[in-house]
Design goal:
517 residues; four-stranded parallel beta sheet; single chain; 12 strands; three-stranded mixed beta sheet; alpha/beta
C-alpha cells in the first residue's frame, strides 16, 4: 500500500519517473459558448486536434521521466449529452455514454493497458477532456482515491489527488455542465427561430435544389415532378429507380439512388415548400414546423417542387399501412399474373419460374415447400398473352371509361381553411377576442386534420392507372400498371393441370373469374 500511496504523492509533486501513463484524447461536438451559433466545436482550450492532444500528453509525461504507453481515443464523443437507455424492466434512464472512458477507468483499476503494458495513471489535456458529467467525475475520483491511480491534466485545471482539489473539480464540472446546458438551450432557440422564419439549414444540399438551398435545380426538380406523377399513376418505386440508374441520375453525394433514400427524399416536407424541422423520432414527412400563431406549416425560403396536394398524395401512397411493398418486396412481382393466377387443383397461388432465354412458367409449388400440390404449370408468356387479350376484349365490349371522381371532401376542407383564416384575421385586428376565437380555431384544426387524413386514405385507394383508353396505352405502360388494371378487373385467373400428349399450351386450361362490380 505504501508503494501505491507513493505513486499519488510522486504524481502530485510532478515526479513521474518510471511510471507508465496512458492519454485520453477526446474530440467532442459540444459548442463553444462564445460562438454558440457558429457550430464551432468546444475544445477546452481550442485544442480539438487528436494528434495535438496526444503530443501534449506524451510530452508532459516524458518531460517528467515517465513512460507514455497508450492512447485512448474518443472520436466525436460528448462528455455532457445524455442518451436514453432502456432498462430490462422496460423503464428508461438517461446517461452520458462513453464506453472508451469507462474502459480506461477499468484498465486503471487493473493496472494494465489494452496493449498489455503496465498502467499506473491517466493523463488528459484538461478537465473538459476528462468529463463534464458529475457521475463520470465521481467514477474518476473513485479510481484515484480508492485504487490509488493518478489522473492528471497538463494544464493544471484538474486536481483529483487531494481533498481540496477534488472539491474544486466537482465545482468546475458542475459549472461547465451548466454552461453546456445554457449553450444547448441558446442553440435550440436559435434553430427554432430560424425555422419559424423559413431559413434553410446548413449541411448538404437537398436533391432538387442548388447549393444555396434556395434555388431550384431545374433538371432534378423535373425528375421529381415526373416521378410523383408516375407514382400516382401506378408506377413502382423500383421501376423509377431503374430509369434513374440508366439515365445516370445520382444523389447529391454522387451515389446511385436506392429505395429508402428515394422515399425519404420525395416524401420530405421540403417538396411542398415546407420548412423541415422536428424531432428525429418522427417520420420525415411529419417533420415540419408549425407557426406558433397561425398554426399553419411554415413555408421555407425556397420554392416548392410539388404542390401540397400532390405531395400529400405521394406521402399517403408511400407511407400508409397498405403502401406498395409493405408486405412484399416491391420489385418481386415482375410477371403480369404473379399473385393473381391460381392452381385449379389446390387453390394455391402459382409462382413464376425462369426457364432461360426470357422464357418462364407459372407453376404450383410442391407440397413440401409451400403446401401446394405441384400439379398445375404452364408457359408464362402464352398465359400472359391470352389473359391480356381477354382483358382488352372485356374492356372493349363493356366500353369502360372509368374515371375516378374528385375527393368529395375537397369543398368542405377549403371551407374550413377559409373560416380559420378569417378567424385569425379577426384576432389580429382585435386580440381581445382571443378567448372566443381560439377555441373555434382549435376545433377547426381538428376537423381539418381529420379531412386531410380522409383525403390521404382516398388517394391511397384511388391511386394507380385507370381503365379508360387502355387499348392505346397498354403497350407503353409498366408491368405494375398492367397488373393494377388486371387486379381491378379480375378476381382470379385459374390454371388447370395439363393433359398428356400435348406440347403446346391449351387455352382451355385457363379460366378468368371477373370481379363483380
Amino acid at each position: 500500500m505504501q508503494h501505491q500511496l507513493n505513486i499519488i504523492e510522486r504524481a502530485h509533486m510532478g515526479n513521474l519517473n518510471g511510471l507508465n501513463f496512458a492519454g485520453l484524447v477526446r474530440l467532442s461536438f459540444e459548442l463553444e459558448p462564445n460562438r454558440e451559433f457558429s457550430g464551432v466545436p468546444f475544445s477546452g482550450a481550442d485544442i480539438n486536434n487528436r494528434d495535438e492532444q496526444e503530443n501534449h500528453c506524451q510530452g508532459y509525461v516524458e518531460n517528467r521521466q515517465g513512460n507514455y504507453v497508450y492512447t485512448y481515443d474518443e472520436p466525436d464523443t460528448s462528455a455532457w449529452k445524455k442518451k436514453r437507455i432502456k432498462q430490462p424492466d422496460g423503464s428508461y434512464i438517461y446517461r452520458v455514454i462513453r464506453p472508451v472512458f469507462e474502459g480506461a477507468l477499468e484498465d486503471l483499476k487493473r493496472g494494465v493497458a489494452p496493449n498489455g503494458q503496465k498502467l499506473d495513471g491517466l493523463i488528459v489535456y484538461d478537465i473538459d477532456r476528462l468529463t463534464r458529467d458529475n457521475r463520470h467525475l465521481e467514477d474518476a475520483i473513485e479510481v484515484v482515491e480508492h485504487f490509488k491511480r493518478p489522473i492528471l491534466d497538463i494544464r493544471g485545471s484538474l486536481d483529483l489527488l487531494t481533498d481540496n482539489g477534488r472539491s474544486a473539480a466537482r465545482y468546475i464540472v458542475t459549472s461547465h455542465n451548466s454552461a453546456s446546458t445554457a449553450t444547448s438551450r441558446r442553440l435550440r432557440d436559435s434553430h427554432h427561430s430560424r425555422a419559424v422564419a423559413g431559413i434553410p439549414v446548413g449541411g448538404n444540399r437537398a436533391f432538387g435544389w442548388t447549393q444555396d438551398k434556395r434555388t431550384l435545380q431545374p433538371t432534378e426538380a423535373k425528375l421529381i415532378q415526373v416521378a410523383a406523377k408516375d407514382l400516382l399513376a401506378g408506377v413502382g418505386v423500383n421501376t423509377i429507380l431503374r430509369r434513374w440508374l440508366a439515365a445516370g441520375v445520382l444523389t447529391p453525394k454522387g451515389k446511385p439512388w436506392t429505395r429508402r433514400p428515394f422515399v425519404l427524399m420525395i416524401t420530405s416536407p421540403r417538396m411542398a415548400g415546407f420548412r423541415v424541422y422536428g424531432p428525429q423520432d418522427k417520420p420525415l414527412h411529419e417533420r415540419y414546423i408549425v407557426h406558433p400563431v397561425t398554426g399553419e406549416p411554415v413555408k421555407g425560403q425556397y420554392p416548392a417542387i410539388l404542390d401540397e396536394e400532390t405531395w400529400q398524395a405521394v406521402v399517403a401512397l408511400l407511407t400508409g399501412p397498405d403502401r406498395p411493398g409493405r408486405h412484399e418486396h416491391a420489385g418481386k412481382a415482375k410477371r403480369l399474373l404473379s399473385g393473381i393466377i391460381r392452381c385449379a387443383e389446390c387453390g394455391s397461388k402459382l409462382v413464376s419460374q425462369a426457364k432461360g432465354d426470357d422464357r418462364f412458367d407459372y407453376a404450383c409449388k410442391p407440397p413440401i415447400s409451400s403446401g401446394g400440390c405441384g400439379k398445375a404449370a404452364g408457359a408464362g408468356k402464352a398465359i400472359d398473352e391470352i389473359v391480356t387479350k381477354l382483358v382488352l376484349a372485356y374492356l372493349g365490349e363493356r366500353e369502360v371509361t372509368k374515371e375516378v371522381a374528385p375527393w368529395p371532401g375537397a369543398e368542405e376542407l377549403a371551407l374550413k381553411k377559409s373560416k380559420k383564416a378569417n378567424l385569425l384575421a379577426q384576432f389580429k385586428e382585435n386580440p381581445d377576442m382571443g378567448p372566443y376565437i381560439w377555441p373555434q380555431i382549435r376545433e377547426l384544426d381538428n376537423k381539418i386534420a381529420e379531412l386531410i387524413k380522409e383525403r390521404a386514405a382516398f388517394t391511397r385507394k384511388t391511386a394507380g392507372p385507370k381503365t379508360a383508353n387502355v387499348h392505346e396505352s397498354w403497350a407503353t405502360i409498366e408491368t405494375e400498371q398492367k397488373r393494377a388494371i388486371v387486379r381491378e378487373l379480375v378476381e382470379a385467373v385459374v390454371l388447370k393441370r395439363a393433359t398428356r400428349g400435348s406440347n403446346r399450351f391449351d387455352p382451355t386450361r385457363l379460366s378468368v373469374v371477373w370481379s363483380q362490380e
